[in-house]
Amino acid sequence: MSSAPQNSGPLRLGIAGLGTVGIGVVKIVQREAALLAARAGRPVAITAVSARDAKKDRGADLSGYAWESDPVALATRADVDVFVEVMGGHDGAAKAATEAALAAGKHVVTANKALLAHYGQALAERAEANGAALRFEAAVAGGIPVIKALTEGLAGNRIKRVMGVMNGTCNYILTRMQSAGLPYETVFEEARSLGYLEADPNLDVGGIDAGHKLSLLAAIAFGTKVSFDKVELEGIGSVSIDDINLADDMGYHIKLLGVAQMTGRGLEQRMTPCLVPAESPLGQLQGGTNMVVLEGDSVGQIVLRGPGAGEGPTASAVMGDVIDIARGFRLPVFGIPAKTLAEPVAALSATPAPYYLRAKLLDKPGALAKIATTLGDAGISIDQMRQINQPGADDGDAIVLIVTHKAAPADIAFAMSQFAQTGVLVEQPVAIRIEEV
Ligand code: NAP
Ligand code: HSE
User: Residues in domain ACT (predicted)?
Assistant: First the structure.
């Protein structure tokens, strides 16, 4: 793609969305005009903005900018070079305005992972056909420059695995449950009152938001079309404080962990609760912070850690993209031309891994043996097993913890279904994958 700046006049931004991210962008442009001009080689200016409510006080002076109530009109204005889409939503105004901007040959910078996870391929093809940039650093892991790391710094590597904690709200909930000893429901409400949850909380706690982000990283890492519909998703709603504490006793922490890797069986993309070693960088990650681990054949392992959300960090990522556009730097949206991205073949099941199993059993002779036999019959080998006398547990019940050797997820699922036939279970058992990090 071309690399020559179109002109040396100001790069003119039209910003659709004046919420957390949009106002963060306005503040940087206003506060750092000289620095941005020096780094971009030309001034960066805002010409027009859009939001739903024209009367809202947004804590920033917007009087110098034209107001457009329709984001599509904003996106196609003659005095807008770069359309900054920070409204959100995978459909509706965000999609319509982004499509309109690209059709008009405007560059687009977006923080919208939902939009790209659903329509990334079509939007990338449209951008590249029209010679426009479509950049989305802010969409994945907020302030962490992970898109740049994958598309540029690690471009000489064959990427083996991409892994990470990419939803700060879930990591906040899981680490707060552990540090305060509180159940999920209590911490969920706390997160809601702190304003951490998306308008639709299931985007966070259902793993969907993090799955969107993982699908974008996987496309770049493996040269495949974005395939969010192939991400195995499981949220954190069923992670119990008991499992958090018991896993901790065994040297593990529970994370909503994304893993993407190309295997001999196809592309594996998972965003699920996993146990990771407590002492590992991922295990140590606290609160709303994000971490992305990139593994390349030449470089080995890179760990990127930083704020995944918030006004400053997300606006920082948007401005990095804006400055690249001002400098005339152009790359294919997902690292290689969109039309050459391969159709991904999804791996039908995840790579075998050790599993943590917890079962509450009737404390009677032979109960444990039945569980062990069921695992053996499913071809699963036990690495560690112990019985816990939990304070407060009902008399006559025993909690059994098992760590298996590596097992296929299908074998674990089969064993879990067979546990019900043993007649010794008191409640539904739990199985959580242990990820080797
Ligand atoms: P937000 O605070 O809810 O702000 C959204 C803005 O978009 C508001 O100003 C709203 O207008 C405007 N808007 C919504 N629908 C519109 C429409 N149909 N027409 C015109 N304006 C419209 O959202 P945000 O947190 O800044 O997030 C924006 C995007 O960044 C989302 O895609 C989000 O996923 C992504 N993102 C956010 C973060 C973060 O930390 N917040 C981090 C990474 C990525 P009104 O103010 O008038 O209602
Ligand atoms: N809801 C998201 C999170 C915001 O908690 O990480 C940033 O994408």
Answer: 356-433
